[in-house]
Amino acid sequence: MRGEVTAAATPPTASRGLDAPARKLQEAGAVPSTVDSDYKITPNDLLEIEVFGVSELKRTVRVNTSGQIAMPLIGTLSVAGLTPADAEALIALQYSGKNFLQDPQVSIFVKEFTTQRVTLDGALNKPGVYPLTGQITLLRALAMAGGGGQLADMENVMLFRMTPAGKSESEKYDVLKIRKGEAPDPMLQNDDVVVVNRVESRVTLRDSLFRDIIDTLNPFASSYRNVATPN
């Protein structure tokens, strides 16, 4: 989520799709980075803020319950509801607008998220909805859920993700290859859904053995099934 803020020679036209704070920043000529632009900062998020070339201004701050942070020289700023890129632009404009810095380059890294979550489902020891704090990869998320269950197919793990356009995308991952370093470990995003499928052959074998045990204990069970499901 790191980006640089530069001043445009000609302020771009405000977009109708932007919220009010973003429109003001755009009208002022700030062009923030667009990486992870869908995430909005919320109270209790932990932010790492740097101003390039000015180490004294580097801060790790937590957004307070009012959605504000405090920065040297420029004081308190409201950042809740802004994307990290818009917050970068806001801080840069404050430093340049008050003549503290000329063309400041600001970057914000969200170290802890408080409203993001991922859903881990399927053949896991502890499936459920987990908070997404910081940057978490697929392997780390699976570890949070206690790893795969007895019937887990770790070569067939699905990741479902919503695009900014509202469409669902899916991708299959071979966790065994990731563990061996033969495939990259993807970074998870807010609202991702991870599903660990079961090995179908093992499920079929388990069900078959279960039926054999039932038939042995209760010889009438097989006859009942044949009557209930005639050919």
Describe the structure.
This protein has 231 residues and is α+β, with helices and mostly antiparallel strands. The protein has helices at residues 20-27, 84-97, 138-144, 175-179, 200-217, 220-228, and strands spanning 6-7, 30-31, 46-51, 59-62, 68-71, 75-78, 106-112, 117-122, 128-131, 152-162, 168-173, 193-198. A five-stranded mixed sheet has the order 9-8-12-10-11. A three-stranded antiparallel sheet has the order 4-3-7, with helices on one face. The termini are far apart. Mean pLDDT is 77; it is low at 1-36 and 221-225.
* Topology as a string of helices (H) and strands (E): EHEEEEEHEEEHEEHEHH
Structural class: alpha+beta
Give me the oligomer status. Answer: single chain
β-strand percent reads: 25-35%
Layout: helices, strands, pairs:
Elements lengths: L5 E2 L12 H8 L2 E2 L14 E6 L7 E4 L5 E4 L3 E4 L5 H14 L8 E7 L4 E6 L5 E4 L6 H7 L7 E11 L5 E6 L1 H5 L13 E6 L1 H18 L2 H9 L3
Parallel strand pairs: 8-12
Antiparallel strand pairs: 1-2, 3-4, 3-7, 5-6, 8-9, 10-11, 10-12
Name the descriptors.
27% strand, 5-stranded mixed sheet, 26% helix, alpha+beta, 12 strands, disordered N terminus, 231 residues
How would you summarize what this structure contains?
By secondary structure, this protein is α+β, with helices and mostly antiparallel strands. It has helices at residues 20-27, 84-97, 138-144, 175-179, 200-217, 220-228; strands spanning 6-7, 30-31, 46-51, 59-62, 68-71, 75-78, 106-112, 117-122, 128-131, 152-162, 168-173, 193-198.
